[in-house]
Structure formats: C-alpha cells, structure tokens
Design a protein that fits this description.
single chain; alpha+beta; Rossmann fold; D-amino Acid Aminotransferase, Chain A, domain 1; 3 domains; 5-stranded antiparallel beta sheet; 4-stranded antiparallel beta sheet; globular
Length: 307
C-alpha cells in the first residue's frame, strides 16, 4: 500500500448533511487505520476555506463523502478539477446528470430501461388538480436519499398540495409502482449484488433508510434468478450510460404481479451512496468478500481528475 495524504470531504449544505458526516467519519477512520495521513473537512459555502484546506494539505487524493446538492451534483467536482486534485467517484458531467432525476430518466430510457411514467410539473398547478391518476409519487427534481418524496394515495385529502416545498418551483411526478424495493451496487464494471429492502409504509423514505429498525436488508435478494440478473444488468447499464465511475447504486421497484422481469422499473441512481459499514453498497461488497477498509482503499486507488 502507498501511504497517501487524503482529505475527506463531508457534511456539506444539503438535506443529507448528517448522513454525510457519518459516512465521512467512517471513511476517515478506515483510511487512517490503513496507515494513510487523513484529514476531514466539513464543506460550507466558504469556498475560500476549502481552497485553503487543499493548499495547506496538498492531498494526493480527495475522498468525496458528500451526499446531495453541491457535493454529489458536479459542483465540488468542478472545483476539484480546477484545482487539479484527484478525487473519488464520478466526474462533473455524470454527477450532474445523475442528480437531476428527469435527465437521468430520459438518459436511461434511451438505453432501454423501463422507468415509471411521469413528467415534470409546476408545483403551483398542484392546487388545481392532480397531475396524474392516483396513486402517484412527487419527487424533488434534484435531491437524494428520498428527501421530500411524497406518495399521494387514492382518498387522501389535498393538504399535500399546500405543504411547504423548499425544493424549487417544479417537481417530478411519477406513477406509483407497487411491489418490492431492490437496489444494486456497482463497483467499477461489476454489479455487486441485489438487495431487497423491506420496510414499513409505501416507500423506502429517509426515515426508513437512516433509522435503525425501520428496514431490513436481504442480500442476496430472495427473488427469481431472471429478475435478479435483469436488475444487475440494468444497474450496470445505467452506470455506463450516465458515465459513472467508481461506485454507484441504482434503485428499482419490482412488481411481482407481472411476468418475469417485466415488472422491473428503474427509479434512480446514486453516484455517492451512503458509506458506512452498514450502508447498502458496503453491505453488498461484504457479501462479495470485500471489507469496508478494502472498499475505501479501492476508491482511493482509482481517484483521478476527470477533465
């Protein structure tokens, strides 16, 4: 192992700040234990402070453990490109495309993946009429970790249309796909495994993701082999089509009432998924015999500028 100076970026400004702090600490601990010189940096709007930290440490690699807006959407990646500092995960373009859900939807559909029927709708129009037949899902255009996602069920009152919406003037509205939640991690050019996530409620929301006891992870997923293989192939297709590098994770719904893999629908891709030993991708890597420290080291070894 080559001992490196590594700056771990974490925290940040998005709604996923607290999750990023946990990811960043776990990564920093693993890399320090492996013998690297590691520092952490809590990213804020003070860009000058980040540049000063880069100048002071002159890291060989930046490990990007940020999640959500400004850290996963190409913004910090662009700054690191300008600074000429190698960094983990995907580059500017892939990060920007993956964070924008409508753009991701169009790109993967062109590659042949099935996604829920939907469209971008102005939030103001929600007060007048439902944008789709119920049940349907309302999503922020550019957030991760199911932040701000709402399932509008038949019979529900219209209070949801009046709720505060701090995610812009429009939203992505999609049909609700009944069924089982599946997720697939990609490591380089290899799909790791399919995990089925069982949870309470209509969707695998922020609370279910990050509150102990609210969800169970079944890896490998107990689903038919044809569906398992189709999910693995679809996740790799999304990763390649969007141009992701390093680690990504794609989420799916599978409607088992439909034959074979016909009920499989792509939901979204995460270019910087949660990175604690208990997160979904590290869990899948462990299933494949790759421990958390080795997974962190693998990303560090492949860090680069993408311009």
């Amino acid at each position: 192992m080559n001992r490196r100076r590594i700056l771990v970026l974490m925290g940040g400004l998005s709604a996923e700040r607290e999750v990023s702090l946990v990811s960043g600490r776990a990564v920093a601990d693993a890399l320090a234990a492996a013998g690297h010189e590691v520092k952490t940096f809590d990213v804020s709007r003070d860009v000058g402070a980040l540049i000063a930290a880069l100048d002071e440490m002159r890291p060989d690699v930046v490990f990007n453990a940020l999640h959500g807006r400004f850290g996963e959407d190409g913004c910090v990646q662009g700054l690191l490109e300008l600074a000429g500092v190698p960094y983990t995960h995907s580059g500017v373009r892939a990060s920007a495309v993956a964070m924008d859900k409508p753009t991701t939807k169009r790109v993967v559909e062109q590659a042949g993946l099935r996604t829920p029927a939907g469209r971008v709708v102005a939030r103001a129009s929600f007060r007048d009429a439902d944008p789709l037949p119920r049940p349907f899902v309302v999503k922020p255009v550019g957030e991760g970790s199911t932040v701000g996602v709402t399932v509008v069920q038949p019979g529900a009152n219209r209070a949801w249309a009046e709720e505060e919406w701090p995610y812009g003037e429009s939203a992505l509205v999609e049909e609700y796909i009944a069924g089982r939640e599946l997720t697939v991690g990609i490591m380089g050019e290899n799909a790791l495994a399919v995990t089925e996530i069982r949870f309470r409620g209509d969707m695998f929301d922020y609370t279910a993701k990050y509150t102990p006891g609210h969800a169970d992870h079944l890896v490998p997923a107990p689903i038919p082999r044809a569906v398992y293989d189709a999910a693995m192939d679809a996740a790799l297709t999304a990763h390649r089509t969007i141009g992701c590098e390093g680690i990504s994770r794609s989420d799916f719904r599978w409607d088992e009432r439909r034959p074979g893999a016909d009920g499989l629908s792509f939901l979204e891709i995460n270019t910087q998924p949660g990175f604690t030993p208990l997160s979904l991708v590290p869990e899948q890597a462990k299933h494949r015999g790759i421990g958390f420290p080795a997974l962190c080291e693998w990303l560090v070894e492949r860090a680069r500028c993408h311009a």
